[in-house]
From TrEMBL:
Superkingdom per UniProt: Bacteria
Residue span, EngA-type G domain: 8-173, 182-357
Record's keyword terms, sorted: GTP-binding, Nucleotide-binding, Repeat, Ribosome biogenesis
PROSITE patterns, per the entry: G_ENGA
Record's signal peptide: none
A Pfam family annotated for this UniProt entry: KH_dom-like
GO BP, one annotated term: ribosome biogenesis
Name of the protein this chain belongs to: GTPase Der
Keyword Repeat: yes
HAMAP family attached to this UniProt entry: GTPase_Der
Family stated for the protein in its record: Belongs to the TRAFAC class TrmE-Era-EngA-EngB-Septin-like GTPase superfamily. EngA (Der) GTPase family.
């Protein structure tokens, strides 16, 4: 069995004005908006993928999470630290050499130390190592290890800092144990019925295998067997805990969703049928889309909707409209209250999970592409016509294809979409996004 790999999560914690967003932007760079066609999620970005040498990790700026404007700084920091401890594999604790060591830093350091999560202590605004180095030593007093001097603005010291960050990945479980069971994240806004759904799935005839506390994190995964097959459900961390209030904060909700989605292959996005689909749902869905996960949209509370024979089509159309960037997503109408269609939900999970991992032989792919090109002439520009030479699938989860062409510039998005549709016409790939990489070859 193959080992599961997932991207580690690194959370940046620190007081206001120490330079968290400056550091975030320096590390995430232009990679922040990789997916242009996902509305709503490239703004107010608080997470991004960072590549350092051969490592990739997800960076979260907890500073974007401001619990309450009336809150004092310490309360804010505590909340940040809690989120970081809950979600991150490594915590990057940022302090400011110009402000020096302050009391709230010490208190947060205590919290982080108790969490036993790897913490990298980073001292920012060390714009000149000669001038400020003696001030950096003061931070040894926090008792959480060696302080790394950096200047986020001048991009100084970032390499050494990142080296320390990535050195914690192995021990914190970048590779989880061998496991081929479908891993399903249940995500959605507060009050859409996520916990009701998990509880309903846990109840009834289905056998509860166990509650396994994650070895590397606080999240609790739920194993559920259905028709003799095991599934792992990944709650948005803290789902079944009482501290729901915090989830009301949109950014907190998003951070949790990122954490859960990252650990799953299949995402069930729960939407409230009574309230209808919203921009917030689109933001959460965008996380799954960007990360190439299989997606099922579960329209919940279907029992509470007054309906006639057209309602299901109207709601479907509305959902398709708001989530127009994921036409591949499956939609199911359920009730966590009555249990309606929960059996079908398992069938859907099986189907999209297979599609997400499906491999298509190169020969067949090239037949489809040749036929597609014959049916619809590729675009041309300034007398040069696009030529498609060869297509092959290079990865699964999600299925990823490389197409070799004569000139990348000529391969418009719409023609790629056309090829995608031809492939989908033959193989379906329902529930999973497909990715295309365009390469030039002469
Ligand atoms: P945040 O509130 O922690 O996200 O802090 P910001 O990233 O918004 O930075 C707060 C202020 O500190 C801004 O005016 C930044 O330009 C400044 N700043 C950030 N990094 C550095 C640095 O390395 N050196 C100096 N001198 N200023 C910095
Ligand atoms: P969460 O915040 O997403 O975990 O949502 P909860 O599971 O706590 O549910 C929020 C509210 O919606 C609770 O009052 C539930 O009883 C109610 N609820 C959840 N699922 C359904 C459903 O399928 N039908 C109806 N009518 N109410 C539901």
């Amino acid at each position: 069995m193959a080992k599961r790999k997932r991207k580690p999560i690194v959370a940046v914690v620190g007081r206001p004005n120490v330079g968290k967003s400056t550091l975030f932007n320096a590390l995430a760079g232009q990679r922040i908006s990789i997916v242009q066609d996902t509305p709503g999620i490239t703004r107010d970005r608080i997470y991004a993928d960072v590549t350092w040498l051969d490592k990739v990790f997800t960076l979260i700026d907890t500073g974007g999470i401001e619990p309450d404007s009336r809150d004092v700084i310490l309360a804010q920091m505590r909340a940040q630290a809690e989120i970081a401890i809950e979600t991150a594999d490594v915590i990057l604790f940022l302090v400011d050499v110009k402000q020096g060591l302050v009391d709230s830093d010490a208190k947060v350091a205590d919290m982080l130390r108790r969490s036993r999560k790897p913490v990298v202590l980073v001292v920012n605004k060390v714009d000149s190592f000669e001038k400020y180095m003696t001030d950096v030593y003061e931070f040894y007093n926090l008792g959480i290890g060696d302080p790394h001097p950096i200047s986020a603005v001048n991009r100084l010291g970032l390499g050494d800092m990142l080296e320390d960050v990535v050195s914690h990945f192995q021990e914190s479980g970048e590779e989880e144990e061998e496991d081929e069971r479908p891993r399903v994240a249940i995500v959605g806004k507060p009050n859409v019925g996520k916990s009701s759904l998990i509880n309903k799935l846990l109840g009834e005839e289905r056998l509860i295998v166990s509650d396994i506390a994650g070895t590397t994190r606080d999240a609790v995964d739920t194993e559920i067997a259905y028709k003799g097959k095991e599934y792992v459900f990944i709650d948005t961390a803290g789902l079944r805990r009482k501290n729901k209030i915090k989830e009301e904060l949109e950014k907190y909700m998003i951070v949790r969703a990122v954490g859960a989605v990252e650990r799953a292959d299949i995402v069930v996005l729960v939407i409230d049928a009574v309230e209808g689909v919203s921009e917030q749902d689109a933001k959460i869905a965008g996380i799954a889309h960007e990360r190439g996960k299989a997606v099922i949209i579960a329209v919940n509370k279907w029992d509470a909707v007054e309906k006639d024979d057209r309602t299901i089509y109207q709601v479907t159309e509305k959902v398709r409209n708001v989530l127009s960037y994921m036409p591949y997503a499956e939609i199911i109408f359920i009730s966590a209250l009555t249990g309606q269609r929960l059996n079908k939900l398992f069938d859907l999970i099986d189907m999209v999970s297979e599609n997400h991992a499906m491999r298509v032989a190169t020969g067949v792919l090239n037949e489809i592409m040749t036929e597609a090109v014959a049916l619809q002439q590729p675009p041309a520009d300034k007398g040069k016509r696009l030529r498609l030479y060869y297509i092959t699938q290079v990865a699964v989860k999600p299925p990823t294809f490389v197409i070799f062409v004569n000139d990348k510039e000529l391969m418009h998005f719409s023609y790629t979409r056309y090829i995608e549709n031809q492939i989908r016409e033959t193989f379906g790939f329902r529930g999973t996004p497909l990715r295309f990489i365009i390469r030039e070859r002469n």
